[in-house]
Description:
By secondary structure, this protein is α/β, with parallel strands linked by helices. About 30% of the residues lie in helices and about 25% in strands.
Amino acid sequence: xxxxxxxxRACPVCGALNPHLSITRDAIPIFQNVVHRTRxxxxxxxxxxxxxxxxxxxxxxxxxxxxxxxxxxxxxxDNHVASSAFEDYYRSLAQMMxxxxxxDSGTVYDVGCGKGEFxxxxxxxxxxxxxxxxxxxxxxxxxxxxxxxxxxxxxSLFEADARLVICRHVLEHIDGPxxxxxxxxxxxxxxxxxxxxxxxxxxxxxxxxxxxxxEHCNYFTPATLAGTLARAGLRVDEQALSFGGQYQWxxxxxxxxxAEPADDREAASTAxxxxxxxxxxEREGTRLAALAARAASAGGITVWGMATKGxxxxxxxxxxxxxxxxxxxxxxxxxxxxxxxxxxxxxSWIESLAPGATILVMNPNYLAEIDQQVRLVRPDLVLEAV
Length: 386
């Protein structure tokens, strides 16, 4: 376990000290997307403290105790989401990019592409492009117009025919997001950049205490995403919420000079975020206690969705309150969740549940498809989105 640091980190966006400190986790798994073959290994998974800091100067929120030296992404990292709803989202996003950027030729780079699932869909829908993804956790591939390189971001990998750079769900993992984006902008000075991250406003508004995880050292509101990109030397042309408000994206272009957000706009958004964080922190304990009481009265509950949300939920509550976890990702089935040691089962495991048992669906975006799947086998079970 990483010892708690005496002083919180400075804001990684503006450099200010003395952040407002709020949500605290004494020890949570450093990886929620790395499962374990035995319960013993899962219980012994490396943990570290989390303390949310919100910058009083620019409003950016981050883990003030984050230690980047603990994080090594390799092929064991698996954030695959086996969901038709999620695949539909990928397709709609790819189609938007194709239309917005006229992707009929040239190279599209996906920085931090994971296993390359989104890029593969984009390449299939835009056969005229060449898609190149880079990520330290991917399996190298070179097939047709689709290529994956097992490597972190390197400017030398970009070629002159670049048409678009994609950076999806990467910045929340980078301890220096402003510096990272500045380096990326310098590597492709004439190319648009598409950035997508979780929406911190959604987390606060929905009391999603399971979304505070060690992997995510940064928490962006739309305002702080724009501010981070501006400070990195990118002009933000467009922003929008996506995936039911859980995500947000921005289209930006590198600028020759440095651009700063307007002081009055940043001051207003900072005040609003600080108040929202304070309000959330007051509610969190009550929300956790109520969910624990529900689980206890039901004689235990099952969790569907053992990625970030499910893993953190079972870590923050008494693991004995959970009958088990379910995930459609086959690579996670038969394994155990880090921190809690809760076993992860395939969907067919629901046949063993008691009549009228409750299943908590960790993401409301997947409730309809999971409900349809469950009703075919066990129409008596109770499904609820957390």
